[in-house]
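Quick one: structure tokens for this chain, please?
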Amino acid sequence: MKSLKCAVFTDTLISVSVESTFVRGLPGFNIVGLAGTTIKESESRVKAALMSLNFKFPASKIIINLSPSDVPKNGSHFDLAIALLIALQKESFGDDFFVFGELGLDGALKSTASLFSTLLFLSAHVKNAKILVPKEIALRACTIPNYEVYAVENLAEAIRFFSDDEFAATCLMSETHPIFKDVIKIGDEIYVPNRNFTLNFKDIKGQERAKRASLIAASGMHNILFEGSPGCGKSMCAKRIAQILPPQSVSEILLSCAYESLNNKNVDFSALRAFRSPHHTSTRSSIFGGGSLGARIGEVALANGGELFFDELPHFGKQILESLREPLEDNKILISRVNSKTEYETKFIFVAAQNPCPCGHLFSQSTSCSCSANEIKKYKSVISGPLLDRIDLYVAMDEVSKDDRSSISSEEMYERVVCAFRAQKLRQQSELNAKLSDKDVEKFCVLESSAQNILESAISRYNLSQRGIIKTKKVARSIADLSDSEVIAKAHLLEALSFRTRSEI
């Protein structure tokens, strides 16, 4: 019996040994071990690929076993392992060697949508592994830690790889992905800055308070709500925040790619953080994950490390908005089904936009509002107090004026965000300001005595909950970082409190 290693996702990642043997009997090809339809179909692909190399099948019955045999498996990336076990007579390929790849009928080796996420999560389970992958995914794979990556283009090269040591040495990948060539170093960590500002704050005229709030929100990943008349620039600000968020570490980029690939997409590394903007008609399963097919990943998990934007917030269903409270508070979401339970991180910045009333002109000085008091109350009652308490900054947008002019650009704002981000990391914070635990808030959000007195008097004036007090401190900490201040001064706290007031809801 011969064996090679592969891996597969169930509710967790499973290392799979692909075993083969030739037994006496009528010639045939049988795959066992709870193999799904995709793996069963590999029989035809493997046969065609081997025949393209003029391989002659033995007059025996071929049995392929996927161990452990009691775990359901699926995925076309098992093709290469199956073909190599049939084509080669090696008794052992090494315990630390994994092979992945889908075969074309002509023997070409291809990547799959889920392969990158499989490689990423495998690296967390198996240290110092050697992997053989298709060349088209090798550049991304070699960036994953704990791997020695070898790349081949087709089945012929894969067979030669295991029979020719000199050729195998030439397949070793040592290149670096282009985005990792432009990095910044803070302490012992490497971060990848964004240089792509296709959506620029310079395009927004006026709205200086909204831009200031956007800068604060981005520097600490604080949740923010924009409220204003139609066309005042709420969505423009929200979409531009994603491009000025703090730089990502290598591990954050890898995790983001892993989550994206779980959404059945071929992904590549990007310095831009994730941006997800589901429509208000989206189903609960599409936003939070799950569905009839199992614990599928949803929008809140895909937004991890980036921005989740809800435009027209009151138009989202009450159940969706209430379900948003847990991922905002706990920074994780658990999707439970009868046969699977999967937990995803949800450390995103939540950005929302809404009109002040159904017609949108409640704040307008030029257009009268046509909504009754009951209509406005009903419109805003969809958003509960507990959800609003999880919002860090509230911004009432100004009405558009002919005198409005462009001011600060995204490039300038991003440089300030990076400086605030550097300050947070040099304080040895494990999380950005908005995601600090209550214990870390006491450690890092230190107030001057005058600022402490202001906060104590503001608790009753603004009717702050315990969560509201902590969030105010976190926002003030980000404002202090933007001012390059070690402690939170009175001015920083007053500005943070100014963003706690909002229109009556």
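The chain is about 35% helix and 20% strand.
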